[in-house]
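Lecture notes, part 5. Sequence design as translation. It can be helpful to think of inverse folding as translation between two languages: the language of shapes and the language of residues. The source text, in structure tokens, appears below.
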């Protein structure tokens, strides 16, 4: 922003200088040339008046020779000619390179420039005004004029450059004054989005509009912090108020089942199954609420290490069900994700897959770096999902399995999105379902491992 403002101001000032300084320079240069010509013409006219005494009155006066010598000392070339074109007086060097005779006398004064010199023709007119009786030709070097013109343009250039530098300095200062609060506000918004709910923007600097925007941002941040903290408090309260009665109810049903007859025990077992399903639903809803309200800052995660760690944790459950679970070693991939998010995603995906697969099936977990993202895949060779179920799988309570809560994949999607990534479903080549998680890629080699923050949701496949 600062650079664009400075460039715009500089372009405007340059245009103004071009419109004002160039015509001013041209006008002043023309005035200097006119003044130089007028001065030279006046000198030649004065010399013509002196020469008139010699040509008209035939008075031999030393004034003409003195004037010629004075002009020669300052570099002028001069000659006085009679009506026949014969030289009456003048410097040793003729003022005209083409020859000493200028032609018939004329009553007009005219001038020209040749070889860096100004040449002026002035007629010698007698007091009677009967006509020109001779001509004075004065040739004066234009070096002094050229020097004054060069100084003039140099001065205009220096003033213009100083003006541009001053404009650039002022524009840069104004741009920084306006952009620094915006940069600070953008940083505060980024930190707030990363989970630092206590972030506030500075409102003490910048234009009034930006200060007002910062104040509105702070009001929004306060409201957002209040809402998130209220949600977190509600989740803690729900966890205590719902889980505890469910545990007590399950214990009472267990006690009743010990002394009940066979028919009553079967009914109590069914009630226990419904309570277990209700517990899974409550756990899933709490996990979903945490995933939707999570604002954790992203951390650097070694994806391969996390994959092998979670596969090792789920290996006993897979062996118990006769399901093959593998995670081939791949190239190191470092991603950015919320603290514990990748662990929770894998736990939910593996739990769903194990619940959906029968004995003899396999689950393959892998990770690659592709297109600037860390791509994690969990692929199985089970029955898979229909296209309609795949489109609805990430919605809440969308379950294609009896008894499922329909929250597992919804939680996965929310966690991936909260980490700046995405989740997608596709068919496994040869049959089955593949879940692909894409997370922002971190190219640095230093890895920071963080433990999982939430327990996995072991609901059946959504």
């Amino acid at each position: 922003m600062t650079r664009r403002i400075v460039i715009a101001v500089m372009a405007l000032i340059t245009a103004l200088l071009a419109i004002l300084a160039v015509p001013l320079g041209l006008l002043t240069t023309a005035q200097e040339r006119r003044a130089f010509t007028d001065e030279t013409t006046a000198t030649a006219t004065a010399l013509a008046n002196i020469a008139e005494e010699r040509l008209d009155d035939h008075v031999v006066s030393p004034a003409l020779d003195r004037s010629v010598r004075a002009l020669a000392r300052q570099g002028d070339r001069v000659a006085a000619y009679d009506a026949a074109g014969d030289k009456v007086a003048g410097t040793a060097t003729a003022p005209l390179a083409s020859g000493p005779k200028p032609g018939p006398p004329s009553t007009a004064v005219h001038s020209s420039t040749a070889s860096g010199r100004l040449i002026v023709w002035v007629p010698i007119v007698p007091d009677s005004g009967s006509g020109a009786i001779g001509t004075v030709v004065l040739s004066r070097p234009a070096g002094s004029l050229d020097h004054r013109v060069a100084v003039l343009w140099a001065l205009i250039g220096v003033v213009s450059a100083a003006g541009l530098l001053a404009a650039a300095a002022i524009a840069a200062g104004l741009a920084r004054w306006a952009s620094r609060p915006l940069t600070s506000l953008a940083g505060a918004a980024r930190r707030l989005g990363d989970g630092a709910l206590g972030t506030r923007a500075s409102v003490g600097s910048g234009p009034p509009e930006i200060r007002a925007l910062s104040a509105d941002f702070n009001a929004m941040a306060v409201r957002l912090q209040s809402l998130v903290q209220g949600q977190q408090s509600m989740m803690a309260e729900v966890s205590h108020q719902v889980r505890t009665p469910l545990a007590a109810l399950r214990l009472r049903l267990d006690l009743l089942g010990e002394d009940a007859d066979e028919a009553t025990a079967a009914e109590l077992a069914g009630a226990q199954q419904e309570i277990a399903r209700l517990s899974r639903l409550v756990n899933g809803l709490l996990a979903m609420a945490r995933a939707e309200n999570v604002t954790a800052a992203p951390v650097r995660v070694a994806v391969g290490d996390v994959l092998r760690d979670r596969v090792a944790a789920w290996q006993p459950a897979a062996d118990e069900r006769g399901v093959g679970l593998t995670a081939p070693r791949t190239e190191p991939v470092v991603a950015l994700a919320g603290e514990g998010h990748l662990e929770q995603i894998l736990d939910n995906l593996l739990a769903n897959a194990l619940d959906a697969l029968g004995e003899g099936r396999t689950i393959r977990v892998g990770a690659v770096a592709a297109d600037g993202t860390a791509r994690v895949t969990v692929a199985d060779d089970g029955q898979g999902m229909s296209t309609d179920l795949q489109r609805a799988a990430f919605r809440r309570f969308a379950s294609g399995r009896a008894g499922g809560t329909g929250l597992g994949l919804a939680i996965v999607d929310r966690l991936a999105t909260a980490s700046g990534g995405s989740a997608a479903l596709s068919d496994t080549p040869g049959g089955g379902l593949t879940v692909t998680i894409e997370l922002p890629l971190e190219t640095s080699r230093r890895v920071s491992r963080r433990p999982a923050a939430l327990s996995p949701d072991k609901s059946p496949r959504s």
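The translated text above is only one of many valid answers, since several sequences can fold into similar shapes. The longest strand covers residues 362-370.
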